[in-house]
Design goal:
Number of domains: 1
Mean pLDDT: 81
Strand content: under 5%
Order of helices and strands: HHHHH
Number of helices: 5
Length: 103
C-alpha cells in the first residue's frame, strides 16, 4: 500500500470516526471492499455510506466518478499511488484542520 492509499485510509477514518487497523487496510483493495468495511464499522445506512465513500474518493483522488464501481481497484484502476496530486490534496485538507490529530 503506497503513501497516497495510506493517506486516503486516514481521511476515511477521520470522515467516519472509525479506526482501520493496518492489517485490515492492507486487505482493502477495491472501492467495494472499502465501502463494505466502512458500512460494517458504522451504524449508518449502507446507501448513505456508499455515496459518501464514493464522493470522498472522487474528491481526494480527482478520478472521474464513472470510474468508481465495486470492483474498481484503488491502485490499479484508479491510479491512487501513481498520482502525486493526491498526496498534495490530502495534505492541504489536513492543513485546514490542524488540530484534528492532537486529541
Amino acid at each position: 500500500m503506497g503513501l497516497e492509499t495510506v493517506e486516503l485510509v486516514m481521511e476515511i477514518e477521520d470522515e467516519f470516526a472509525i479506526k482501520i487497523p493496518d492489517e485490515d487496510a492492507e486487505r482493502i483493495q477495491t472501492v467495494g471492499q472499502l465501502e463494505q468495511y466502512v458500512v460494517s464499522k458504522t451504524a449508518s445506512d449502507p446507501q448513505d455510506v456508499r455515496q459518501k465513500v464514493r464522493s470522498f474518493i472522487v474528491e481526494i483522488s480527482g478520478c472521474d466518478a464513472r470510474e468508481l464501481h465495486d470492483e474498481a481497484h484503488i491502485i490499479y484502476d484508479l491510479g491512487m499511488d501513481a498520482r502525486p496530486e493526491i498526496i498534495r490534496a490530502v495534505r492541504e485538507r489536513r492543513k485546514s484542520r490542524p488540530f484534528d490529530d492532537v486529541m
